[in-house]
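Incident review: delayed structure delivery

Summary: a single-chain prediction request sat in the queue longer than the usual turnaround. Root cause was a stuck worker, restarted by the on-call engineer. No data loss occurred. The affected request and its eventual output are reproduced below so the record is complete for anyone auditing the incident later.

Affected input:
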Amino acid sequence: MEILSLGYVIQNGIEFAEDVCFSGTHGQLVFDKPEEEGGKPLSGLLYEKRENGKLAYYAYYKNGISDGDYINFYESGEVASFQKMSNGVISGKSITWFENGNIRTVAEHKYGFCIMYKEWNENKELIKEKIEPNEFEKKMIEKYDTRAKSIRETE
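Output delivered after worker restart:
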C-alpha cells in the first residue's frame, strides 16, 4: 500500500469541487458536471481538500464509480483509512488507523462482504475478531464467484 503525497494528488488528480458532482440516474456516480448539462462520468484520481488545505480523501474512479485505492485522512493529515474498491464496493484489504498511527481495524472483503475482520483498542488489545464469513455471506460470495467465472468464460 502506497500513500500518495498531497503534491502528487493535486498535480495529477481532479478536485471534487465546482462542477464535479454526484449525478446519473440514481445520483451515485461522479460526473464532471451534472448529467442534464451534458456531464460525463469521471475516470481517474479524484480528491477533496479540507478547509485547512489538507486532503480529506482521494480515490480512483472508473466511469463515475470508485475503483481502486480509496484513502481517507484525519483533519491533521494522518491517514485514517485505506480500502480497495472494485466497481463501487470494497474488495480486498481495508485498514483503519487511530490518529496516533496505531492500527484500529484490518479487514478482508470480497464483493463487498466482510470475510475477515480484526479490531484493536488504543492499547493495541484485540477486542473483536471475525475469522470467516457467515453462511449468508458464503452463499452470496459463491453466487458471485459463479457469475464471475461464467462471464470470464464467455469473454
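Verification: Residues 6-154 form a domain with the Outer Surface Protein A; domain 3 fold (CATH 3.90.930).
Action items: add queue-age alerting; document worker restart procedure.
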